[in-house]
Amino acid sequence: MFNRTTGYILIAALAAGMGLWAAQHWWMPPTPATPQLQVVRLFDHPRALPPFSLEQSDHTQLVPGELKGHWTLLFLGFTHCPDVCPTTLAQLAQAQKEWARLPDSTRPRVLFVSVDPERDTPDAVGEYAHAFHPATLAATASVPALEALARPLSRVFMTIPAPTGAPADQSSLPTTPAWALVDSRARAPGRYPPP
Predict the structure, then answer these.
(1) Cα separation of 41 and 105, whole Å?
(2) Segments in 50-83 forming alpha helices (H)
(3) What is the pLDDT of residues 115-128, one digit of tens each?
(4) Which one of 29, 90, 185, 187 is separated from 65 by 20 to 30 angstroms, measured CA to CA?
């Protein structure tokens, strides 16, 4: 039934199991519980943002100087977006929750800019963005101003008219699903493509 060979096999298996457990707990780095920012595509040189003025959800103007002093993740989208925008804002809201323990001076900010000023009033943009996280900055501007802001960030958006017979409010504005980085000097050093 139980012989010496079986005993040696059990002892060897127990030793191997303890060795694996020790290796995982002492020599291997811990696996993060949440996804981490791992890939940022940097531009050859940080790009200067053009002069701009966005109307924020509180009806104040957001100008480049107000972005100085903090890193900002800027996302161009719109409130009628069916998939990319809510998914991206949910991911950014999760990151904002994790950043809450950081001092305000080093905590990154999130800026949601609507590229659909015909349908997205500053109030609507604020209500939409704040539903994901109350600290998200929300703004919009005229289409020419938005195009000027998007260009150095390597962001693209365009209006696609509603299908024939559909209401005009069903037009769409596909955007590229990536976040632009704005550094503490209000320059664009790169972008973060979505996972």
Answers:
(1) 24
(2) none
(3) 999 889 999 999 99
(4) 90
What pairing do the DSSP bridges indicate for beta strands 54-56 and 137-140?
A: antiparallel
Element holding 93 (H helix, E strand): helix 84-99
User: Residue 7 phi/psi, 5° resolution?
Assistant: -60, -45
pTM over 0.90: no
Calpha distance 23→3 (Å, rounded): 31
Please give the Cα distance from 183 to 108 (Å, whole number).
9
- Sheet with 41-48: list strands edge to edge: 41-48, 187-192, 179-182, 72-77, 109-114, 137-140, 54-56, 61-62
Mean residue pLDDT across the chain: 80
Task: Determine the Cα–Cα distance for residues 57 and 81; give it in Å rounded to an integer.
Answer: 18
Q: d(Cα 195, Cα 185) in Å, to the nearest integer?
A: 27
pLDDT in tens, 41-77: 888 889 998 999 999 999 999 998 899 999 999 999 8
Q: How far apart are CA 10 and CA 22, in angstroms?
A: 18
- Structural tokens at position 67: 């972005």
